[in-house]
Amino acid sequence: MKSVGDILRVKGRNVSTISPGATVFEALTHMAGRNIGALVVLEGDTIVGIISERDYARKVILQGKSSREIPVREIMTMVMHTVHTGSTIEQCMSLMTDKHVRHLPVVEGERLIGIVSIGDVVKALLDDKETMIKDLRNYITGAR
User: Fold this and answer.
1) pLDDT digit string, tens, across residues 101-114
2) Residue 96 in contact with residue 104, Cβ under 8 Å?
3) What value does the CA radius of gyration of the chain take, rounded to a whole number of Å?
């Protein structure tokens, strides 16, 4: 069973972040430039929230606001769900499903060390299933 640590070993621990005082436009530009859907919001070294494309769509566009004027702190999601390197991919999937989130910051104590997305988790689950199928085929056929 794969863990968050396994995902981070493959994907790396690079996390894109932004400050709560930055504008939503700056956050969107940052996300677009890196082809990602969310940024962890840090105040100093402390995680204070996460801002996603979903936050933008629901809290700016649908309310007729301007992304060039609104600070990230006004639309970020402040209720944080985090995982650690020992969390299993099944635990991540369950948390993402139950809490309706697509990104989980990975923490070690209070320190941000990575992030996993729903895409990372689904890929890891598929890889696990493929490995299990291969192992079962080899067991049944006697192959090594």
Assistant:
1) 999 999 998 899 99
2) yes
3) 18
Task: Domains for the chain: give ranges and CATH numbers.
Answer: 4-141 (3.10.580.10)
**What DSSP string runs through 23-61?**
BHHHHHHHHHHHT-SEEEEEETTEEEEEEEHHHHHHHTG
User: Residue 79: how many CB atoms within 10 A of its CB?
Assistant: 8
Chain segment 56-113, per-residue pLDDT in tens: 999 988 888 888 999 999 999 998 899 999 999 999 999 999 999 999 999 998 899 9
Amino acid of residue 116: V
The one-letter amino acid code at 35 reads: N
What is the distance between the alpha carbons of residues 144 and 141, in angstroms, rounded to a whole number? 9
